[in-house]
Amino acid sequence: MAVWTRAGKAGPVEVLLRERWVRALAELSGEALTLTSEPLNGLPNGAERGRAAAAAAAAGSPGGARSPEPPSPPLPALALAASPRSPPPPPPSRSSPGRAPCRSPPSSPPSSSASASPPSGVRRVRVVKAEAGGLGISIKGGRENRMPVLISRIFPGLAAERCGALRLGDAILAVNGIDLRDATHDQAVQALKRAGREVLLEVKYMREATPYIKKLSLVSDLPWDGAAPQSPSLSSSEDSGSPKHCSPAKDRKVIPLKMCYAARNLSMPDLENRLIELHSPDSRNTLILRCKDSATAHSWFMAIHTNIMALLPQVLAELNAMLAAGNTPGSGREVKHVAWLAEQARLDGGRQLWRPVLVAMTEKDLLLYDCMPWNRDAWAAPCHSYPLLATRLVHSGAGQRSPCMGSDLTFATRTGTRQGIEMHVFRAETHRDLSSWTRILVQGCHSAAELIKEVSLGGILNSQEVRLQIHYENGFTISREEGGSASILFHYPFERLKMSADDGIRNLYLDFGGPEGELTLELLSCPKPVVFVLHTFLSAKVTRMGLLA
């Protein structure tokens, strides 16, 4: 295996996060890529604009900037000062099947602090909690943030979501008659926790505050490890919105590079040639980086790709150590090479796309996986398995039918199977990778021929059951069973073979120039595997003789 020198690199990039580009500082080490959000005036990406909008909304000046010097107006007045051009959506007129009870209460409120008819824009919503599970909301804001208490998240499946009458951006003015207009965040949390099973909320929708309650674009939230997000309790402070919870120093993501797949122009169009794709080993997540120009993107891609390839010897050692315990000597399961490639897939209508595929090569087989097989059970269940002896490389580099981008980095394999010929077109990411795979495949097929040496299969010749044996050294033998022993009908070395052909269904044709003429063997299945094995034997023998195959 080639020796790769690990690269170190650092610089600004942009990360695609929740359909937004977020600026970050990328630091590349030997085994990981670390992304740290670049703060804007001390706040993470997207926080400053959303917070300013929320403060403006609370101050009654939508979209306008607010000077920090004047004191903030009292919150009780702010909470009710919603803009008349931002009416809330009308609540459902009737309950949907399966929803929790949630309705407008009778005109008489449960507390004297509320009037019989709510002010304009204020809604009264009754939510009944289920036996298991809470109210199902998270809140932001509070007096210490100079904001009303806002609903920032509604969790699926819980009472608030099943109710259908609450929405993100609703300011909670009261809970069971307890006034929250001047409450701190913690006071609001405690009021909601003590509300009991039946909760009566007074809410008012504040459209201008929605940028504030939307979750910030945090690099640390990149879903790289595939862990399912947990639903926080009401006492959780992650949604408090206070400055201490927006610390840019903690907005960092460390991405281990071992068996990641660095690619370009694969899953996302890149007309400016500025994007880098990093696919996780489990194929569940994809990280998209954008650089300032094409040259910078190329430099970053080569550095990341180099470090991934430098980790392959370690991966091979771990794989072979894992497989060694369950394999017997000579089983041919030693892994010779493993790496990600892009495979061409054909869609309806003749369209084509490229998709990631993990390709592994053992002493005898070519294996395809859709994700990295880290354990023996996963290793034993590839998407496709092809014997190297019946596989050949049919082209490497650009072909006449490959005008698409990256076509000069493609290669194709064909394998003879019982169902016919299976063809796969792969794309490498660099010319060095293409050269490496070309060499590894050809040498792997030849090594498999020298290792296996012989194939044998049954058939019918001249209405007699016979057995065809093809030996790497000794050539062709056709024999017939007689009285418990084999009677040799024909035996020819490879150099006597004049012609071989098949009909793609069952018949194999061999002509050795003998007096018997062309031999027609009717096999028990498709003859393609035999034809490919024959080609591999001949190619390996010619290469061993020092000639080009």
Task: Explain the overall architecture.
The protein has 549 residues and is an alpha+beta fold. The chain is 20% helix and 33% strand. The chain has helices spanning 47-58, 75-79, 159-163, 185-193, 210-213, 294-310, 312-324, 376-379, 431-452, 528-544; strands at residues 9-17, 20-28, 32-37, 122-128, 137-142, 147-154, 170-175, 178-179, 198-205, 252-256, 261-263, 275-279, 286-290, 335-346, 352-362, 365-369, 384-387, 391-396, 410-417, 420-427, 454-461, 464-471, 475-482, 485-492, 499-502, 507-511, 519-523. The strands form five sheets. The chain has a seven-stranded antiparallel sheet with strand order 10-3-2-1-13-12-11, with helices on one face. The chain has a seven-stranded antiparallel sheet with strand order 17-16-15-14-20-19-18. A hairpin with a 7-residue loop joins strand 26 and strand 27. The protein is elongated. The two termini are 23 Å apart.
Question: Helicity, in percent?
Answer: 10-25%
Structural class: alpha+beta
Sheet with the most strands: spatial strand order: 10-3-2-1-13-12-11
Task: Note the main sheet.
Answer: 7 strands, antiparallel
- Taken as a percent bin, the fraction of beta residues is 25-35%
The beta-strand count equals 27
- Mean pLDDT, rounded to whole units? 79
Number of helices: 10
Given as residue ranges, the uncertain stretches (5+ residues, pLDDT < 50) are 40-44, 46-101, 103-115, 226-249, 400-405
Distance between the termini: 23 Å
Anisotropy-based shape: elongated
Radius of gyration: 34 Å
